[in-house]
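Subject line: Sequence and fold of a protein, written as structure tokens
Enclosed: The protein record, placed directly beneath this head.
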Amino acid sequence: LKGIDPARTDNPSWRGACPWRGSFDVDPMSPAYADGVVRSTLQVIARAMRAARRRRLPPVRFDLGSELMNSVVEKPERWVSLLNLARREVTALGMTGQVLLSHNFSHHIMIPEDEVLRMAAPRRRVLGRYVAGLDAVAISQYMDLSVAAPVRGQMPDPERIADALMRHERTFTRGVLVGLLGLAEKEVPPLHVGEFGIGSGGLAHPNLWDGRPEGEAARKLAAEIEQGFRGLVAYLARPQGDSGRLARTAVLWTTGRHFDIFGWMDRSNAIPG
């Protein structure tokens, strides 16, 4: 939809607001991807593990794909083939149990019409088989973090943001993986937050990256970003398990002005709070 302003609409779809996103997709079994990206990276991991063989290292979670949205919709059977290839490579390299094969999905998979509802039932079952065969699954968590606020538009406290994160993870695991892709609950792999950050859209639209607010708008955004990270900490502090949070780890996205809150890439990006 030309001219759409994602910060002023309730339509969270990347297909309406960001037409390039998802178009840079690949056939995961193409030599350039299967060999050039996946197998070569597994070989790099194997060399690193051999170099650190005297240390006891936790397993490495390796994402076979990340946010390749159209590819997942259109070629789920090729992802199954890639998983089988990667599993053989892990075994051949002697890394069984040391590397967890995972997939990092875009948050758009939690918006059924963006991805899963574009798939016919047989393809959904294939995608479900792919997910069930993984050692872990990750989600880029950029859904609305203000949904649990007592008053719409009011700044939620960290615990309410943690409530929102728990709501979204259950939308993904129970609503999408179980409800739409047909996994049994026991087949859902361990969950990780594969990417987290808050951009120029603040808590309601954390995935927006462009825009340069000034003055009071900039101060309001900085406060929302700080509160969002406090909410992430509150979420990760909650007990883990069936009645608690599901995510085991979270990875911070730090590329870009508003996401780089610690100033790791550019000191001028740091948010003092």
